[in-house]
Amino acid sequence: MPRDLFGRTRKNEAPLTTSAESQTSLHNEFTIHRGDEGLGYDTSRNAKDTKALPNLHPYVQTLSLSDLESCVALENATFPEPERCSKEKFTYRLTTCPELSLGLFSTTVAEGPAASLPTYSFARPPDSTAPMKKSTLVAQVIATKCVSVTVTDEAMEYPPDWRSQTSLSEWQGHQEQGRTIAIHSLAALPEFKGYGLGKIVMKSYMQRMESSGIADRIALLAHDRLVKYYEALGFRNTGKSETKFGGGNWYDMLWDITEQTGS
Known about the structure:
Low-confidence stretches: 1-17, 19-50
Mean pLDDT: 80
Strand order of the largest sheet: 3-4-5-6-7-9-8
Radius of gyration: 18 Å
Number of strands: 9
Distance between the termini: 20 Å
Shape: globular
Strand content: 15-25%
Oligomer: single chain
Helix content: 10-25%
Order of helices and strands: EEEHHEEHEHEHEEH
Structural class: alpha+beta
């Protein structure tokens, strides 16, 4: 099992759990710095305003095709239409390489704080012993692998005939032999803006990928207003991207895994 934040908590980082069964007491100790950006991470060094998650019990879990509708609902609630991942792309990514996607869930009951969320109606019981509870998706990281160092338009696409596997592209979509993890979506429900859910799921994801040994780097695209957000997470801005997805005007961001591992 790859190492996670919940497995070895670093200084000043909140603990997470790996399953619905073990996360019932988290909300009392789960305090995150409130930020002004949409993903909720405060990049200032002297942040004084902190907020506890509103009765959420967060835990991370690898996403699968059974989470498809929740992923689509979260994506649609977070991004403008030109930048959204389509349902077919989600289906492709969660079928082809689900191990590269991670969700942040919270277990709740019908009268709980997550019951009104866009993803709640697609939530499923965490196990058969608790049918009244539901594991609700509140944040996610969706990714594939590519052969390029940065995220390209080809990496953002998927082979049109992927279901039949008769004409898989050498460049389009997931490339298993690639050493770059291309993140296509880091999304957190707008209802919890300012609680740092994006940071939590991303830091856990970065540790998973670092420990897995399956790639040399993590790459993503960011608009100018979020460059500092990703720099605070450890990413390096390598300049304007040539990618035209969603209208373009992106910056290439890289996190070098080999620098963390010394390999």
